[in-house]
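Deviations from the work plan: none for this task. Representative record:
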Amino acid sequence: MSDVWVNVETLRGEITEISYTMLAAGRVLADGLEGSLTAVLLGSGAKDLSGKLGAADKVAYVDHAALADFNPEAHLKALTALAKSGAPRVILFGQTAMGTDLAYGVAMANGFSMASSCRTFKVEGGEPLFEAVTCGGKLIADGKMPGPTSVATVMPGGYKPESAMVDKTPGVEEVSVDADLGTLRTKVRGYIEPDTSDVDISKIPVLVSVGRGIGQEDNIGIAKELAAALKGEISSSRPVVDQGWLPTSRLVGKSGKSVKPKLYLALGISGAPEHMEGVPDWETMIAVNTDENAPIFDVATYGATVDIMDLIPALTEKVKAATGG
Amino acid sequence: MDIVVPIKFVPDLVEELEIDEGTGQLDRTFLRLVPNELDDHALEEALLLKEKHGGTITVVAIDSGDVDETLFTAVAKGADKVIKITGEGYEEGLSSHACVELLAKALGDLSYDVILTGTQAVDDVDGSVGGLLAAKLDLPYVGYVTKAVSEGGKLVVTKEYPGGLLAEVETDLPAVVGIQAAEQAPRYVVTSLVMDAMNNATIDETEGGEATATGAAEITAMRAPEKGEAAEMIAGDAGAVAEKLVQIMKEKGILS
């Protein structure tokens, strides 16, 4: 088989952006392998979403009440069975909080090869190849996707999702799966709504974003002062939120907000892929990090390697002087 | 509740990572290995669960890096039992698949309710330990978890969904849970308690044997990322950098 499958991610009835990134990646693979591209859609009464999957050659739709919400076990069972019987050449999942609950299990249970954090793909001599991002973005791993079937998880950044947003309904085949979705060990009790009482950092034009380099909770205060002087807001990368120094509402990146500011001031942020996927666009990015090899310097507009604890007070003072604040 | 926490050792990203030009793989000669940060969060969540509900914590690590110190530190924090999987060549680096094979073997006869592991590790290229281990052991898996509590013989976890949404998910036990962040930052222990553990606790050793990695992605080469249009670097001390940044912000119309 030379077909390529994309596991379409949906959340509350909407197709997520990574699904389109995957469809764009899947197109590269399917064309190279001279196979067809199938969008695999799981849900309950969600068949109409096929109308937004025109980038695929066909849609395989599985309908079951247990697949209404993202129940990791139900989706894993269905996809494991589907992948076993369909045995395509490549199956793509999102490198996301949903996709990674599925991909590793589907691969392991079926004995398929597994590659994670892939950004781009190509086919050479009939063989699918991947390029993955690892070690916090400091290294790239090139690898092969051995047959008969390989599973890969896809991260944002390699393909433009817009290129695969085609409003056209490809042929839809409703398929049943050979899996007992009535008996599950895992149950989704319900969603916990995000806290909307805090400012929405995705709408703020100037963000002072702090990372691990901020060192300790006491230092958050001076970063907030800088943000105030710039009439902006403070945001952060994951370690700062995990330490409990800032609330989740300030998190930029995977599982947090996606921001498109006019100025992104990244202080003590290394630029790991999980963070960078939350900053898809900006006008000016200034990165300050004492590690001159930090991946963030590959993308930022301006960079400096001074200690942020020296820079923040100096910058705050000069900004205040310049604005009369 | 009896909890198992596997710990994976990963390259310390603070250090410079070199590629061996001969093999095209990560040069491990001077590589410093550290415990995967999210595994430390998994241990913290295990400690919180134990404090709330009682039970035991078993920490399992493969012989690499400062494994003994890591295991004694776990004892000092409150782990009841620590296991080291010994064998040849583990220092050369193990894929997640190889780790999972060794862990599954080491867990063989052990009885447990839940395996808590970091939802990913920084050097994963062939999937993460949690999801792979769950499939290998035929247990349910929930990843990206930021909180876990025991309720009526089940584990109730808070799972992250994309875009800042969370959900409450309950799972029968035994299960494998991938921790993204513990409810509180991982605790520190003073050196004297680690020294006490070194003097009083015992590390159980189990022979892991050969670690095959069937199913792991085949990596042909590792390399540094291509430099795109790299940042324009600003030289000088903090004062000079601040001066220049203010000038840039003025030019860009950010300061007015």
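Chain A is about 25% helix and 30% strand.
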